[in-house]
């Protein structure tokens, strides 16, 4: 049985999926399975994945019969099909540093937590991050910080493709599949998990994940994301109660952080 199941939902990712899979297969920690759930792609995504699977038995391809239109559905299917002790998430166009799993699992063991993420770097061209991807980290010198439910309400400090979480936790808290939560289903889930289990997760203070900024990325539509965050904060409950007027405070925090990023920019997720 693998220690880690890597869940990769994909749709029309032929341009990136080979690089993404290569970054997982190159991990220094190798007790893993790689589950690619294809959301009925119309390009060569499945062929590329199948070719990679023929060269690495850890890769498994699950093809969906119809397109769901949102990543939460294939993610949940991948989670249910997994058998690892931990689940790691990776979007089909993002990349991992080769020590990502090794470093995060060491941090989990030393801290006793069951949920860990890492810092990340945004990129548009892989050539610009090749040197960073090849940097060797001394895991004994890497610090971690804590992320509480309260901190998450102010800002989503957790990038989906950097998360490792105990399988039993994510099985009890699947991603919401409502279309209105598309692109924020991960934020909703991190909030839900942190509140339900009453814990603080940890962030490894090293850029172990590389987030590809695609031209048509839904997360780049600030107005759409604002609307979806408003939906989340309008419906989200803390202690069984809706946020009420507090939702405007948290929406204000989202707007502030978005403007700050646009004005000053930052490769690191703060």
Q: How would you characterize the overall build of this protein?
A:
The protein is of the alpha/beta class. The chain has a single domain, classed as Spore Coat Polysaccharide Biosynthesis Protein SpsA, Chain A, CATH 3.90.550.10. It is built from 10 helices and 11 strands. It has helices spanning 17-25, 45-55, 72-81, 100-111, 130-133, 149-154, 167-172, 185-197, 222-235, 246-264; strands spanning 4-10, 32-38, 59-63, 86-89, 95-96, 115-123, 144-147, 164-166, 201-212, 237-238, 241-242. Strands 1, 2, 3, 4, 5, 6, 7, 8 and 9 form a 9-stranded mixed sheet that branches. Helix 1 links the parallel strand 1 and strand 2 (32-38). Helix 9 (222-235) runs antiparallel to helix 10. It is globular, with a radius of gyration of 18 Å. It starts with a strand and ends in a 6-residue tail after the last helix. The mean pLDDT is 94.
Q: Spell the H/E element sequence.
A: EHEHEHEEHEHEHEHHEHEEH
How does CATH name the architecture? Alpha-Beta Complex
CATH topology: Spore Coat Polysaccharide Biosynthesis Protein SpsA, Chain A
Number of helical runs?
A: 10
| Main CATH class | Alpha Beta
Radius of gyration, whole Å? 18 Å
Indicate the proportion of strand residues. 15-25%
What summary fits the major beta sheet?
Answer: 9 strands, mixed
Give start-end ranges of low-pLDDT stretches. Answer: none
Features:
single chain, 270 residues, alpha/beta, Spore Coat Polysaccharide Biosynthesis Protein SpsA, Chain A, 9-stranded mixed β-sheet, two-stranded antiparallel sheet, 10 helices, 11 strands, 39% helix, globular
């Amino acid at each position: 049985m693998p220690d880690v199941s890597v869940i990769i939902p994909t749709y029309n990712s032929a341009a990136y999926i080979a690089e993404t899979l290569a970054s997982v297969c190159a991990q220094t920690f190798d007790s893993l399975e790689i589950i690619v759930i294809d959301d009925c792609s119309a390009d060569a995504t499945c062929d590329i994945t199948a070719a990679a699977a023929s060269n690495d038995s850890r890769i498994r391809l699950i093809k969906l019969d119809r397109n769901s239109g949102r990543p939460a559905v294939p993610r949940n299917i991948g989670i249910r099909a997994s058998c690892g002790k931990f689940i790691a998430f990776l979007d089909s166009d993002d990349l991992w540093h080769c020590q990502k799993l090794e470093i995060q699992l060491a941090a989990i063991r030393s801290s006793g937590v069951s949920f860990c993420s890492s810092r990340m770097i945004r990129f548009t061209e892989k050539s610009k991050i090749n040197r960073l991807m090849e940097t060797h980290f001394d895991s004994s010198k890497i610090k971690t910080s804590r992320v509480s439910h309260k901190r998450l309400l102010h800002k989503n400090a957790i990038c989906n493709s950097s998360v490792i979480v105990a399988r039993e936790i994510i099985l009890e808290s699947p991603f919401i599949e409502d279309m209105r939560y598309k692109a924020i289903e991960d934020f909703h889930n991190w909030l839900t998990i942190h509140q339900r289990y009453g814990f603080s997760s940890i962030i490894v203070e090293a850029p172990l994940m590389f987030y590809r900024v695609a031209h048509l990325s839904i997360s780049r539509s600030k107005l759409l994301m604002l609307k979806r965050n408003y939906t989340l904060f309008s419906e989200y409950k803390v202690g069984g109660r809706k946020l009420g007027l507090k939702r405007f405070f948290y929406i204000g925090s989202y707007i502030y952080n978005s403007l700050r990023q646009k004005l000053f920019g930052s490769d690191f997720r703060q």
